[in-house]
Design goal:
Blueprint: E1 9-13, H1 19-24, E2 32-37, E3 40-47, E4 53-57, E5 77-80, H2 83-95
Antiparallel strand pairs: 1-2, 2-3, 3-4, 4-5
């Protein structure tokens, strides 16, 4: 059973779409999302041109280094292969 977040988490579009964006592809998802916790932004997800997504904490929170780089310094930004993976990682980090 997934852990419940202690506070309400809300995902919203970080940057509104422009006419130019919608003209190019009306089915494309937004390229930036923001996680709001109790009305405060805590993390922003940004789609990358090369594919994948970055998740950047706003504040003092840091991502732990990946298992294959145990000596790496924790960073405020981490890369994920999909939007779903990035959202799940943010939700899991906030639940702990």
């Amino acid at each position: 059973m997934p852990t419940q977040l202690p506070r309400p988490l809300h995902w919203g579009i970080a940057t509104p779409r422009t006419y130019h964006d919608s003209y190019l592809d009306t089915t494309a998802p937004p390229t930036s999302w923001v996680a709001n916790l109790n009305g405060q932004p805590v993390c922003i997800l940004k789609g990358k041109d090369i594919g994948g997504w970055t998740a950047t904490w706003m504040g003092d929170r840091l991502w732990q280094p990946p298992a294959h780089l145990p000596r790496a310094t924790p960073q405020p930004m981490s890369f994920f292969s999909s939007l779903e993976d990035a959202k799940a990682a943010v939700e899991q980090a906030l639940a702990t």
